[in-house]
Amino acid sequence: MQPGVCPNSFKQLRACLVCGLIKTTQQFVENGCENCEKYVHLSGDRERVLDCTTPRYQGVILLNDSNHSWVGKYLFLEGKYRGVYAIKASGILPPEVLGDLEARGVTPHCLNAS
């Protein structure tokens, strides 16, 4: 089972626009997104974190076992790290990130709206 990823504070929470993982801004800067780092390269880049995450999300779930959770399956979170996820996130990914995701066959979790 993969290790868990949880926000270490309730301030400055953001959701990854690709997978919906919720962490603090600082956690994204320090560690990137455990699920999407190979696509979005957030680690160490605060500007990129602000571009590829959003503070606008609705509802949260705590995902403990992504392969046996019906909610995880419904939200397309199978195989993701244990952690806190947004049910719905709103934001716009940069065009170059969207193009890279499409080329890799990855569908973003976000609603592409502002």
Q: DSSP helix count?
A: 5
Low confidence ranges: none
Tally of strands: 7
| Gross morphology | globular
CATH fold description? Herpes Virus-1
> Based on helices, strands and strand pairing, what is the structural class?
alpha/beta
Indicate the CATH architecture. Answer: 2-Layer Sandwich
Residue-averaged pLDDT, rounded? 86
Total discrete domains: 1
Report on the biggest sheet: 4 strands, mixed
CA-atom Rg in angstroms: 13 Å
Give the N-terminus to C-terminus distance in angstroms.
Answer: 35 Å
The percent of residues in helical segments reads 25-40%
β-strand amount: 25-35%
In the CATH scheme, the class would be Alpha Beta
- What is the N-to-C order of secondary-structure elements (H for helix, E for strand)? EEEHHHEEHEHE
What is this structure's SSE topology?
Elements: E1 4-5, E2 13-16, E3 22-24, H1 25-31, H2 37-40, H3 46-52, E4 53-54, E5 57-63, H4 70-74, E6 82-91, H5 95-104, E7 111-112
Parallel strand pairs: 1-6, 6-7
Antiparallel strand pairs: 2-3, 2-4, 5-6
Describe the fold and architecture:
By secondary structure, the chain is α/β, with parallel strands linked by helices. The protein has a single domain (9-112), classed as 2-Layer Sandwich (Herpes Virus-1). It is built from 5 helices and 7 strands. β6 (82-91), α5 and β7 (111-112) form a beta-alpha-beta unit. This is Spt4/RpoE2 zinc finger domain-containing protein.
How would you summarize this macromolecular structure in one to three sentences?
The protein is α/β, with parallel strands linked by helices and 114 residues long. The chain has a single domain, classed as 2-Layer Sandwich (Herpes Virus-1).
